[in-house]
Write a structure and sequence with these properties.
The protein is mainly alpha-helical. It contains twelve helices and seven strands. This is Cytochrome c peroxidase, mitochondrial.
């Protein structure tokens, strides 16, 4: 199997490419950019750094506080299959998922949904099936929100996901602030930021990864304005984290480096052998249909393998499996696009 890169190594590599904070040239360049990144490898524009001004967000301090949380050895992702799986960066994949799911409700035709509003804070969206477990991510961010009351929840959730990508060794994803918060749960017909259940991708359309599942994936992502290449790039986020039986019903990680974003997800799909999971820890598997590798330690969902079984998706999987730099470039662009869908930046 491929060499496992742990969180600390990814973090060290990330630190090596950071830009020294405070240089005039870097700040000026960021100020002139129309859509600037304020992740670990880039600077906030001066207009966003007025920490002393009332009502301003201190983006440098916010970044530092979020990174401290992402690297915390005590912050955990509780209730995972009857145990605790956290610390040392294990919450970072959950933050990527939080940002993804906040934005992934967008509909390009109606202009509804998206990350604006932080609508997942309210029922019924907080209880939508695709958001199971994300209450833990939101709870972990509450102390950060209290320390930075002027940042909107919507910007906070997205920025945490952007930094989590970098903290896991992934690319710098451009971030633009300016999202607002909904004040209360509101019917979708009265506030276009709220959406009904069913807008997030499902793991199986009933044919276990064949034509119906591939079409379901396209229906979900085309609705947001993505093409096949962008769909596959965004799916690469499954290099991070794992499925949990107490949330989705599925079990296991996609790769052996759960806290490192890499192209290993694509390599595993192509180079490993995947069969239907029949047993789990010595007992018959009673969860939904999923696939496992010969060791039983790694898993793939039907919607994952649909990417290699579909003739139009597969070439993109092959390109990313062969070229991690290309995957990082395309993922950063597609993820930024996703996080900005439906946001009316002022």
């Amino acid at each position: 199997m491929f060499a496992t890169r742990v969180f600390a190594a990814a973090r060290s590599a990330l630190s090596a490419r950071n830009v020294a904070r405070g240089t005039t040239a870097a700040v000026a360049a960021a100020a002139s950019a129309s859509a600037f990144a304020i992740g670990m490898g880039a600077h906030p524009a001066p207009s966003l750094c007025k920490a002393a001004a009332p009502g301003a967000v201190d983006w440098y301090k916010l970044r530092d506080d979020l990174l401290e949380l992402l690297e915390s050895e005590t912050a955990t992702n509780p209730g995972v299959d009857g145990a605790s799986n956290g610390g040392g960066g294990a919450i970072a994949p959950m933050m990527v998922r939080l940002a993804w799911h906040c934005a992934g409700t967008y509909d390009v035709k109606s202009g509804t949904g998206g990350s604006d509003g932080a609508t997942m804070r309210f029922k019924p969206e907080s209880e939508h099936g695709g958001n199971a477990g994300l209450q833990h991510a939101r709870a972990l961010l509450e102390p950060v929100k209290r320390a930075h009351p002027n940042v909107s929840y919507a910007d906070l959730y997205v920025y945490a996901g952007v930094l989590a990508v970098e903290a896991c060794g992934g690319p710098t994803v451009g971030f633009r602030p300016g999202r607002s918060d909904a004040l209360k749960a509101t019917p979708p017909e009265q506030d276009k930021r709220f959406t009904p259940d069913g807008r997030l991708p499902g793991a199986d359309a009933g044919d276990h990864g064949k034509e119906k599942t591939a079409q379901h994936i396209r229906d979900i992502f085309y609705r947001m304005g993505f093409n096949d290449q962008e769909i596959v790039a965004l799916s690469g986020a499954h290099a991070l984290g794992r499925c949990h039986t107490d949330r989705s019903g599925y079990w296991g990680p996609w790769t052996r480096a759960e806290t490192t974003l890499s192209n290993e997800y694509f390599r595993e799909m192509l180079e490993n052998t995947w069969t239907v999971k029949k047993a789990h820890k010595g007992k018959p598997w009673t969860g939904p249909l999923q696939f496992e590798d010969p060791t039983g330690e790694l898993m793939m969902l039907p919607s994952d393998l649909a990417l290699v079984w579909d003739a139009r998706f597969k070439p993109h999987v092959e390109k990313y499996a062969a070229d991690e730099a290309l995957f990082f470039k395309d993922f950063a662009q597609a993820f930024k696009k996703l996080l900005e869908l439906g946001v009316d930046f002022k």
